[in-house]
Amino acid sequence: MSTTIKEEKETASLLDSTQVVIKEALDKLGYSEEVFELLKEPLRMLTVRIPIKMDDNSTKIFTGYRAQHNDAVGPTKGGIRFHPEVDEEEVKALSMWMSLKCGIVNLPYGGGKGGIICDPRQMSIGELERLSRGYVRAISQIVGPTKDIPAPDVYTNSQIMAWMMDEYSRIREHDSPGFITGKPLVLGGSHGREKATAQGVTICIEEAAKRKGIELKGARIIVQGFGNAGSFLAKFMHDAGAKVIGISDAYGAIYKPEGLDIDYLLDKRDSFGTVTTLFDHTITNQELLEQDCDILVPAAISNQITKENAHLIKAQIVVEAANGPTTLEATKILTERKVLLVPDVLASSGGVTVSYFEWVQNNQGYYWEDEEVQTKLKALLVNSFNQIYEMSETRKVDMRLAAYMVGVRKMAEASIFRGWV
Ligand SMILES: NC(=O)C1=CN([C@@H]2O[C@H](COP(=O)(O)OP(=O)(O)OC[C@H]3O[C@@H](n4cnc5c(N)ncnc54)[C@H](O)[C@@H]3O)[C@@H](O)[C@H]2O)C=CC1
Ligand SMILES: O=C(O)CCC(=O)C(=O)O
Which stretches make up the Glutamate/phenylalanine/leucine/valine/L-tryptophan dehydrogenase C-terminal domain (predicted)? Predict the structure, then answer.
């Protein structure tokens, strides 16, 4: 695919730009146009309307989605986000990225993703529970331990997974821990799932730092987002001797070149990953991204590094903990500037990897120690990083395209063997 198409796509939706890179990856690997036609959109997309009784006795109708990209390899898998800006296109793109992540780490899954348009920060616990249960009732026909297995994502957590698992188990009239992952430990959750995404990002940072000859001890790190992915990551980096000099949340950012007190911030943040509201002197999220640092980790939302600010990024390494934080045009600019960009479909695959471990443990009814989870996660991610880095070097393509080439192969082969194309 020509550079011109990429350039035209700067303002494109997440779905359009995902299709551009999938097409490019399939072309490079020699797959036919039919394979692209099959993989360019999810196989299934369900839109549901969920009536919920609110605390003031009114009824509010929420819109939710579940996308299932491709189930040639196995059941689909992916998180559910509760966010006011969720939309159909985003959920579709997110399900496609899940397929790529599962391909990259070689998990026996295709990709799925769900979302509900809502703002959980404005809802009571009771309203959130009713919404979580209502969503499961609405999508129950197309999900299940051997069909499509949800998990947490933005503004959802282990409590929400617990309500969803309970609702699904009631519908099916038997306990179904394998229906959903990211559950509390006492309900069949796995050791290590809560910190898994950040653990995966940490492994990618370690590998990228080696390639760039950067010593992690003393390296200056900026993390955008202080939720599940961002806050654990800041802690891991801090404990590894790196200097976390900036963090942010939805309301702003704090930056301190001498290094932030991460333990204090962790203690003060709320359950939605908000902490900057406690500070008088904040900067914007956009300003934070442009500060001088060695390693930058966007760990919040999509479309944060664009052609407008990619020239201003000072970091030598950008590791995408969030899904879709860098546009295609910005990817090109960073790559030309020799910034090592570790793409989302690799960097954030630690979460789904430990979710897979959780599902395996639920299926066998035998539970592993944390150490076993850590060892297995590290082995898989180091191997995936190496494969993608090597693909990028040998095929002379950027790390995102290399990751798509590695991630799409198994799904394409499985679809062909099944006779779908
Ligand atoms: N939780 C998981 O297991 C995984 C999460 N991810 C991705 O990581 C990213 C963060 O997810 P989580 O940490 O789980 O979510 P979370 O809900 O725990 O935290 C989200 C963080 O982003 C901040 N945020 C929200 N809107 C923002 C905005 N407009 N500008 C700046 N910051 C904003 C919030 O204040 C919060 O600090 C998302 O892109 C998600 O898809 C990827 C793989 C797995
Ligand atoms: O843990 C999972 O199954 C999915 C995590 C997820 O939604 C993601 O990687 O974006």
Answer: 190-419
The type of residue at 273 is G
Phi then psi dihedrals of residue 12, to 5 deg: -70, 165
Residue 101, annotated ligand binder? yes
Retrieve residue 113's tokens.
Answer: 């993703």
Determine whether the annotation assigns residue 386 to a binding site: no
pLDDT for 180 beyond 60: yes
H or E, element range at 76: strand 76-83
Q: Element (H or E) spanning 60, and its range?
A: strand 59-68
Structure tokens at 409: 């192969």
Distance CA 345, CA 391 (A): 15
Asked about 113 being catalytic, the answer comes back as yes
230 lines ligand 1 (CB under 6 A): yes
The C-alpha atoms of residue 246 and residue 226 are separated, in whole angstroms, by 10
Q: 14-42 burial by CB neighbour count: b if 16+ within 10 A, else e?
A: bbebbbbbbbbbbebbebeeebbebbebb
Ligand 1 centroid to Cα of residue 414, in Å, is 32
Of 97, 153, 226, 251, the residue with max ligand 1 atoms within 8 A of its CB, to mutate for a pocket test, comes to 153
User: Taking 60 as the threshold, does the pLDDT of residue 338 lie above it?
Assistant: yes
Q: Is 378 annotated as a binding residue?
A: no
- Which residues have a Cβ under 8 Å from the Cβ of 71 and sit 6 or more positions away? 43, 110, 147, 148
Catalytic-labelled residue, pool 113, 235, 243, 332 = 113
11 pLDDT exceeds 80?
Answer: no
**pTM of the full predicted structure?**
0.96
What ipTM score was computed for the predicted complex, to two decimals?
0.98
pLDDT greater than 70 at residue 413: yes
CA–CA dist 284, 153 (Å, integer): 24
